[in-house]
Specification:
disordered C terminus, 17% helix, 495 residues, rod-shaped, Tick-borne Encephalitis virus Glycoprotein, domain 1, 5-stranded mixed β-sheet
Length: 495
């Protein structure tokens, strides 16, 4: 009976723990990246009343099995489904991230401690740092400001906006490209505008005029003049001069390769003009303009500018120059690289989110706020992290990983747990019905013994109770309380 009571109580405690686990799962059914937990039961130790015996050839008696009585159940384990991904939910928020295709974790820092999370609902704080909803800093790799190389030596807090990444430096213009059409039958001049920058990012605009000088056979010659140079919209005393002319072939429609590139020189009537120091070395600015893209067709004359000159090897336009760039937007690609766009057209990587993996992710310890801490059974963090590409996974921007709780499974488990709890409570109830007669027997035996001992003291004597204030005469009658009780030698009986 005592063993049954113990088993029932242990069963109640175990099923209550399982119900606690189920309740927590259901409570976090909509928690970002929550990993569901499950509990398993384990037997408690056994009492062996008879050990096992083997067959005895001498006596001809066969072997017998051991006789053991179990003493209930206990919590075997509480495990976390770390390797099961939750469904993704679209948010269209650039800082909401989800890791897919692998069991990697984001790395965060809070209070000097390093934690790990699958919850990518990040945001930007007042300093421009990328943080979790609870304020923990998201860690990753920084970028070398000179080379643009990602430094994967150690992880540190990432910033979406800071003085170091909020702006990009300007560059002076060294080359421009003009493309379009010139109709040789038109007598009017062809006018276009050259735009270029100095080393401080100031924008200069110069009006360029192509004037038809004459035609010899199929060759048409144009002179080039420039005037009215402005700086950031204000007129300057600078001039733009060139000694070159353009020669077009009316049959091929192409300019001669020999004079396809025109060099303009920026000059100032003022000696040692500080503007020229910003524009180019030694007080002058040599501006190379590629004219090879200008055709000679019957269409209307029109010429447009492109910053820079096309590199024959890479196909990129170089030397176009640019103004000071101010960050206009940022985004995070599938590699975890944070790419910023700037007002001057620059696009640069300002950091990369690092991730990490564990040999045993189930060994991580939950510490609340969607965070995990490394333990001896999970494996240690190396302080460097991994590129998401090395995990065969990717980072999705604008989506969140949700909870992997299966409500249908949780309700099913809850029903079976409830049945188990009720059954164990019934064990206690039934065991108590067996235990009560025994308990009453012990109580009655103790009462009889008490009365037998004290009846000898009461016979023939007056006994006054200090508690009840009752007086007993020698016949055992209570003369004070008004009740009549006869006392025999061995017990109390009602007269």
């Amino acid at each position: 009976m005592m063993r049954a009571l113990f088993s029932g109580v242990s069963g109640l405690k175990s099923h209550q723990t399982r119900m606690d686990v189920i309740g927590n799962n259901i409570a976090n059914v909509n928690t970002v990246a929550y990993k569901s937990q499950s509990m398993t039961f384990s037997e408690v130790f056994y009492q062996t009343t008879q050990t096992a015996t083997g067959p005895n050839a001498d006596t001809g008696k066969g072997g017998t099995n051991a006789m053991q009585i179990g003493l209930g159940s206990s919590v075997g384990s509480i495990s976390t489904a770390m390797t099961t991904e939750g469904a993704t939910e679209r948010t269209d928020n650039a800082t909401d991230l989800a890791i897919t295709g692998c069991n990697a974790f984001f790395i965060v820092s809070s209070g000097g401690n390093t934690y790990f999370t699958r919850a990518g609902n990040f945001t930007k704080d007042e300093s421009g740092a990328l943080v979790t909803q609870s304020g923990a800093s998201v860690l990753g790799w920084q970028v070398d400001s000179e080379t643009g190389e990602i430094l994967k030596d150690k992880v540190s807090p990432l910033y979406l906006e800071s003085d170091a990444v909020k702006y990009t430096l300007p560059e002076r213009t060294t080359g421009l490209t003009l493309a379009g059409n010139i109709n040789s039958t038109e007598s009017d001049d062809v006018t276009t505008t050259l735009n270029f920058y100095d080393s401080l990012g100031s924008l200069y605009q110069a009006t360029v005029v192509l004037h038809k000088e004459g035609q010899t056979g199929n060759d048409v010659t144009y002179s080039i003049t420039a005037s009215s140079i402005t700086k950031d919209g204000e007129k300057t005393d600078l001039t733009l001069t060139t000694s070159n002319t353009l020669v077009f072939n009316s049959v091929t429609g192409l300019s001669n390769e020999a004079n396809a590139n025109i060099e303009f020189t920026v000059e100032s009537p003022t000696a040692n003009d500080p503007q020229l120091d910003n524009i180019g070395a030694e007080g002058t600015h040599i501006l190379t303009v590629d004219m090879s893209g200008i055709k000679m067709l019957a269409d209307k004359s029109s010429i447009k500018q492109t910053y820079g000159i096309k590199d024959a090897t890479t196909g990129n336009y170089i030397g176009g120059g640019k103004a000071v760039g101010t960050m206009t937007s940022y985004g995070i690609d599938t590699m975890g690289r944070i790419n910023a766009s700037y007002s001057n057209g620059d696009v640069k990587t300002i950091g990369q989110i690092a991730v990490t993996e564990f040999n045993n992710p189930g060994g991580l310890e939950k510490v609340g706020e969607n965070l995990y801490a490394a333990t001896l059974n999970s494996g240690e963090f190396d302080g460097i992290g991994k590129d998401i590409s090395a995990t065969k996974g990717k980072i999705q921007s604008g989506v969140l990983e949700m909870s992997n709780v299966d409500l249908a499974q949780e309700f099913t488990t809850m029903i079976t747990t409830q049945r188990g709890y009720q059954a164990n409570s019934r064990i206690i109830t039934v065991s108590d019905t067996f235990f009560c007669p025994v308990k009453l027997l012990f109580i009655n035996f103790a009462t009889l013994k008490f009365c037998a001992v004290h009846s000898k003291l009461l016979q023939g004597q007056h006994f006054r109770s200090g508690i009840h204030g009752s007086t007993w005469n020698k016949y055992g009658r209570n003369v004070y309380s008004g009740k009549s009780h006869q006392i025999s030698r061995n017990t109390f009986v009602t007269a």
